[in-house]
C-alpha cells in the first residue's frame, strides 16, 4: 500500500526546522570557506616547498568538497522535512572528518620524517 503525502502547500511545516537546516548549510559553507582560505594562504606563502603547496591545494579541494556536501545535505534535508520524514544521516560528515584527519596525519608524519 502506498502512502499518500499531502501537497507541499498543504503540509504544515514548522519554520524552525527549515531555518535550522539553513543555519546548518551556512555552517558548512563557513567551514568550506575557511578551509579554502587557509589553502590559498598556504599555497601562496609556500614558496618552493612542495609539501606546503600540496597541503594548500589539498585544503582548497577539501573546502570545495565541504561546500558541495553541505549543499547536498541541505537539499536532502529540506526535501525530507517537507515530506514529513526524518532526513537520512549521510556520509558527508564522516568523509570530511576522515579527510581532515588523514591530511593532518600526513603533514605531521612528513614534518617528523624531514
Automatic annotation (TrEMBL):
The chain crosses the membrane at residues 25-45, 51-72, 93-113. GO terms for cellular component: plasma membrane. It is a multi-pass membrane protein. Pfam families: DUF202. The keyword ATP-binding does not apply. Residues 16-80 form the DUF202 domain. Keywords: Cell membrane, Membrane, Transmembrane, Transmembrane helix. It is found in: Cell membrane. PANTHER family: DUF202 DOMAIN-CONTAINING PROTEIN, FGR18P. This is Membrane protein. The gene is yidH.
Amino acid at each position: 500500500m502506498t502512502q499518500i503525502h499531502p501537497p507541499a502547500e498543504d503540509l504544515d511545516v514548522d519554520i524552525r526546522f527549515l531555518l535550522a537546516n539553513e543555519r546548518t548549510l551556512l555552517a558548512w559553507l563557513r567551514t568550506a570557506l575557511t578551509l579554502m582560505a587557509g589553502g590559498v594562504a598556504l599555497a601562496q606563502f609556500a614558496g618552493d616547498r612542495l609539501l606546503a603547496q600540496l597541503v594548500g591545494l589539498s585544503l582548497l579541494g577539501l573546502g570545495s568538497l565541504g561546500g558541495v556536501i553541505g549543499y547536498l545535505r541541505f537539499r536532502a534535508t529540506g526535501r525530507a522535512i517537507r515530506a514529513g520524514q526524518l532526513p537520512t544521516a549521510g556520509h558527508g560528515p564522516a568523509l570530511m572528518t576522515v579527510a581532515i584527519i588523514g591530511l593532518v596525519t600526513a603533514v605531521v608524519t612528513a614534518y617528523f620524517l624531514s
